[in-house]
């Protein structure tokens, strides 16, 4: 079902730019084969809650902070106030399908035909909704075109499988196809053996930061962090961010590229009058272990 989205949580989208060089090539072409799995093109985005992975198109950013549970994929700087603005500027929304529990092919088609399509018609006040079912990357899928007054207003890709997901845009662009064609369950992806260790590395680092254990954090960090920062500087940064570190810290997912990954941090205050603050962490695999390479924390001035 299309989640009702109106105003974003910020007047403009909060952007954390992660500059990564894409490599490799996507070998997948759309078809009905359930055997052919897309080859990853880096960087990839791994979503924790939805347990899905997709390749991030070159020069595009995944914004997971503007709206909880949704990843906006776009290039450049968007001037937006609503989700409709995102689509009008060729942005794409990705979100898990949380109301589809039966993952069989029959149940998926029933869900699309009896729930998703009727809800879409109602949401956009149109009956011009066309569906094309297929199968790729081992999962059933559906391509949905929504028109109103003769004009296309949405193009939607629904992937079934162990972790169903929806990809939404205004039109099916080359960027949309890149996401669509590389979208897989984490268990089918090249990150299937890394996902848990990535989560654990993030959890351990956040816990050390919360406990103000600068010595442990510094000694376990990658050489790059220790070369550019002293233990005293790290300790000062943790102390300055102490009020934020007592808050709920949310990490929706990571951008991964060839034994490196970056995560955006969101610090949510308990007070309704206070605003969320943000940070970031980057890790590099060194001697078979994920080690902290970069840490950015909010300061009182934020």
Cα end-to-end separation: 36 Å
Order of helices and strands: EEEEHEHEEEEHEHHHHHEEEEE
CATH topology name of the largest domain, in short, is: Protein Transport Mog1p, Chain A
Instruction: Please outline the major beta sheet.
Output: 8 strands, antiparallel
Number of helices: 8
Q: Quaternary status of these chains?
A: single chain
- Beta-strand percent range: 25-35%
In total, the number of strands is 15
Q: What level of helicity do the residues show?
A: 25-40%
CATH class of the largest domain: Alpha Beta
The assigned structural class equals alpha+beta
Spell out the CATH superfamily of the largest domain: Mog1/PsbP, alpha/beta/alpha sandwich
Report the CATH architecture of the largest domain: 3-Layer(aba) Sandwich
Average of the residue pLDDT scores: 85
Q: Whole-number radius of gyration? A: 20 Å
Any idea what the shape is? elongated
Q: Catalogue the unreliable spans.
A: 1-35
How many discrete structural domains? Answer: 2
